[in-house]
Amino acid sequence: MLEYSISIKYMLIGYSAILVVLFIYIASLFVRWRNLQRDLNSLEQTGKKG
Amino acid sequence: MKPQPVALKILNVLSLGLFLAALALVFLYAPLEVTMNYVQKIFYFHVANAWVGMLGFVAAAVAGVIYLVKHDLNWDIIEVSAVEISLVFFLVAILAGSIWARPSWGTYWTWEPRLTTAAILELVYIACLLLRQGIDDPDRRARFSAVYTLLGSISVPITFFSIRLFRTIHPVIIGTGSASSQGSFDMSPKMLVTMFFSLGAFSVIFVTLFWHRIRLGQLSQVVDQRKMEE
Amino acid sequence: MTIEPDTASDHLASRKSSFEQNPSFLKSIGAIIWKDLVSELRSRELLTSMMVFALLVILIFNFALELDASTRKVATAGILWATFVFAGTLGLNRSLALEKDRGCLDSLLLAPVDRSAIYFGKMISNLVFMLIVEGIVLPVYSVLYNTNLFVPGLIGVILLGSIGYVAVGTLLSTMAVQTRTRDVLLPILLFPIIIPILIAAVKASSGILQGMDLVQILPYINLLLVYDVIFIALAFMVFDFIVEE
Hints:
The complex is a heterotrimer. Chain A is mainly α. Helices cover 92% and strands 0% of the residues of chain A. Chain A is built from 1 helix and no strands. Chain B has 6 helices and no strands. In chain B, α1 packs antiparallel against α6, α2 packs across α5 and α4 runs antiparallel to α5. The longest helix of chain B is centred in the last third of the chain and has 41 residues. Chain C is mainly alpha-helical. Chain C has one domain. The radius of gyration of chain C is 19 Å and the shape is globular. The interface between B and C is medium-sized, with 32 and 37 residues.
């Protein structure tokens, strides 16, 4: 049988990895969205001026 | 760009809720497995992510073919979204599985069929994204991407069976395993409940993220069109 | 009911009848192969670079791996196929790049030639070049390592593997050459897709060289055949989509 302390350690590392990767991805979606919105706004601004 | 539809907002809340509920089930409800106790719990999310990665894989292949037939760029957006989120979900599955493997099998990595095929699939996805990056014309990019995804979606399953031709140690949990596989364990009813709930939760999360990514793609398309009009 | 000229089913329909309606289909393929062979005969740049590269790879393996008599038995198949895969990439890249740079690709597309004839023509000429290189690597390796590689089964496996490699490679290099990143992209696109060929070819070659029973080798040869058929058919169906303008 696997020793409890090792088992718990790896379990926590595993779940941290899962959470971190998912979080990074979702964050990247937010960041990319915000950048695109900004691009769109500035394009519309120059469109109005020009 | 249209604001989030009500359905999506509901999905956001539902996804978060189901995710937290799944975590609760994993840590509070599911019993400890006999040999591997705590670290076995990674399995629930590992399998769920791999399953959802598969959904994305199929979606990408289908969307690519539909694009080739219909030449509607919306299907290209769907295809690249599926590729991207499948990439992420398989990455999570591989990482989680790798960390689980260390105390269980004594090694982070093994060249067994499922794991190797997953790694190759990730490479196919990355290749597809790199291919897209090298093309500016939206129609050509969509066509090439669809063709490559189609090639990959046929080659990767063949790869899986090729590797299986000569080795396996991946745990088989539904009892159909060949005599040479080791490391299988039986799942008690509570474990099965947790497993299926995790699968369901991640399926909902998949749909939600897929939708968000598609919206992102549509916004990107709008911005590109505006830029070209400049 | 409206008829949409550009749907995939129409492509398939026109191609099914191309052998009957277009007796020049085979002639077009022949012409393309002939063009490639003749121009290569004059310049020899493709073959020389592939050849030198292949021999260099074998040289590198000599220093990279300890190839004593026993390891050699096991490693030969792998070394040969690694060499073929890398040298093959060179050939595929150059072959399509030459087309594009000389403007041949565009002219071919303008000509009243069935698109898939272009594919088959390029594929077969790529195959010929690859087989020539392999045909020289085999004796060189045999001499350098005192191993007899002229076993009929091995030649067959090399042929099958090369066919599959070139089938997918021609398709992908046609795509890669139209991107900004060109040469660099081909290996990245190609290698994950040809893994089944690599597995089957290495295992089959290794089995033949070590004198294993046919029973053990047959599954891998089947795999090669299946892969070749599937991917040639696939390339045939899909080639039009990657040379549209």
